[in-house]
Amino acid sequence: MNPVLTIVLGITLLTVVGIAFGGTFLLRVGNGTVPANDLQKTFFRAGHAHAGVLVTLGLLVAVLTHVAGASPGWGTAGAVAVLLAAIFVPAGFFLSVLGPDPQRPGPMIASAWIGAATLVAGLVISGVSVLAAGLAAV
């Protein structure tokens, strides 16, 4: 496995601690300890869920491309793109509803769209590289 990707994966595993801490934040929002309006509650839940799912997907893509024998460069690029989406998408949800009582998402929602595009790019790169590795092995 590419050493840079190995380092990125190690860092990513450590970020799961932050995602778990985010779960405690959601519990405080849910029980009213942290004041939040309905929009904020919805976006905080979406941000937390996307963080967990996309980090898991990024780790899976990294391992899958490696095991399939995909090109190290393309496999790394695809996995890193998916992991970047795990930053951009939740950031868009969390940061777009900061403030005392937002009524609609702010401009930072663009980060979620950037993350969605990054996710699609990473999955296409990874899918094609795994497919190419499989075809080359036939």
Commentary on this structure:
With 138 residues, the protein is mostly helical. It has one domain. Helices cover 80% and strands 0% of the residues. The chain is elongated, with a radius of gyration of 17 Å.
Produce a short descriptive summary.
The chain is mainly α and 138 residues long. Helices cover 80% and strands 0% of the residues.
List its traits.
138 residues, mainly alpha, 4 helices, 0% strand, elongated
Helical amount among residues, as a percent range?
A: over 70%
Q: Which spans of ≥5 residues are poorly predicted at pLDDT below 50?
A: none
Give the tally of structural domains: 1
Order of helices and strands: HHHH
Q: For the terminal residues, how far apart are their CA atoms?
A: 22 Å
Number of E-type strands: 0
Structural class: mainly alpha
Rg result: 17 Å
Task: Profile the largest sheet.
Answer: none
Mean of residue pLDDT values: 95
How would you describe the shape? Answer: elongated
Annotation field: number of helices: 4
Beta-strand fraction estimate: under 5%
Blueprint (SSEs and pairs):
Layout: H1 3-30, H2 38-68, H3 72-95, H4 110-137
